[in-house]
Amino acid sequence: MKHLSAIPHRLLVCLLAIYSFVPATAQRKQPAGFDDDYIFWGYPNVYLNYEAKFAYPLIDRMLQAYPPEVEMSQNRQMALVALDQFLHDADYTKRNAFYTFVNERMAYMLTTMDEPVFSGVRVYKLYNSGFILKTLKTTVAIDLVPGGNTSKPFLTDSVITEIISRCDALLVTNSDSRHANKSIAKAFVEAGKKVYVPQELWSNLGEEVVSVGGDTEQTVEADGMTLHILTGHNGKNTNNIYIMDFQGRGVVAHTGAQDNDADYDWISQIHDLYDTDILLTKSANIHLEDMLEGFLPRMVITAHENEMESSVDKRESYWTTQKRLKSLALLNIPNVVMTWGEAYDYADTESKNISSSANKVLINGVLYIERKGSFYTPAGIKIK
């Protein structure tokens, strides 16, 4: 064996460093002291748990300080990028902080849902393609699902129950479990609330389940809403496109998981038939430009970002959505990027009263809202 003096100085320093490091790691046997010294040698997964527990509340506070808007601030953009990083953790199901984050955002949303919406439409974003649309007259949930799996859902039963209690109806676009949940539909039915679904889905749940869609456009009158249904497809499977006319307060379209090349022949003509204020549509769609050109909405709000059941490479990040929409800027359609539990008010001032596509008309000194030949009171009641 060589004498120590024969070993080059730099190599000797390295060997001494390794020698001093090994016993230090070996001494780290018990994870019980993490809260005392925050040293995680040998426990990388524990470190990631602590990091998530520390970061999620900061992201939540930043998102509340910088809510959804058309012109996104750098602070909000940074918060969404940080959220993307944590939501692209391959082992996110091991992080209790993730589940806490989702449910706390829903709890915050529920408190704002108790506030009346005197004008326009308030849009709440849920998980995946889920949304809640609230007006003075009605509150509608679309594609409400708990996320995750039956043994470990993202949204707790209590949160789901509270959401249902604040909604008047449920719309389901297609039968995929990322859009449809039978237990939630059953809870709506048991509460005496309507559930609108594609044909032949859950026909045995009761008379409150209304099968809609078909070969031709279908229109259903509901309390505070005129519902138009166009039957599209996700591959070969039926996918209802809902166009919700909130009777003078705005028109909102939801395209579900629409993804079928053949359907874009008629989708390209939708703007000739319907005057859409807000389009809720999937971001990661190779036909996104065709969808926007078909509806020509006054605003687009995207869905399906960070679908956690998908592999990391298939989870559409918020920064990807921003890049995708920026490339379509020539269409001059404003967009709002939202995350779970957030709200956005469309035309929320009395001066605007309702959507920009409706006209104010004075008849015998009384103000009415005129849309496509029909007249409504400012409260959204249709005048026969």
Q: Would you summarize the structure shown here?
A:
This protein has one domain (47-346): Ribonuclease Z/Hydroxyacylglutathione hydrolase-like (Metallo-beta-lactamase, Chain A). Strand 11, helix 10 and strand 12 form a beta-alpha-beta unit.
Secondary structure topology:
Elements: H1 9-26, H2 34-37, H3 44-65, H4 74-87, H5 96-113, E1 121-125, E2 131-134, E3 139-142, H6 157-165, E4 169-171, H7 182-190, E5 194-198, E6 209-212, E7 218-222, E8 225-234, E9 237-245, E10 251-254, H8 264-267, H9 270-273, E11 278-282, H10 288-295, E12 299-303, H11 318-326, E13 335-336, E14 343-346, E15 359-363, E16 366-371, E17 374-376, E18 382-383
Could you name the CATH class? Alpha Beta
Strand proportion, as a percent range, falls in 15-25%
Number of strands: 18
* Class by alpha and beta content: alpha/beta
Mean pLDDT level: 86
Strand order of the largest sheet: 6-5-4-3-2-1-14
- Model regions low in confidence, pLDDT < 50 over at least 5 residues: 11-27, 348-357
**Name of the CATH homologous superfamily:** Ribonuclease Z/Hydroxyacylglutathione hydrolase-like
Please identify, by name, the CATH architecture: 4-Layer Sandwich
Cα-to-Cα separation, first versus last residue: 103 Å
Q: Report the major sheet.
A: 7 strands, mixed
CATH topology assignment: Metallo-beta-lactamase, Chain A
**Number of DSSP helical runs:** 11
Which outline best applies? globular
Query: How much helicity do the residues have?
Result: 25-40%
Order of H and E elements: HHHHHEEEHEHEEEEEEHHEHEHEEEEEE
Tell me the Rg in angstroms: 26 Å
- As for the number of domains, it is 1
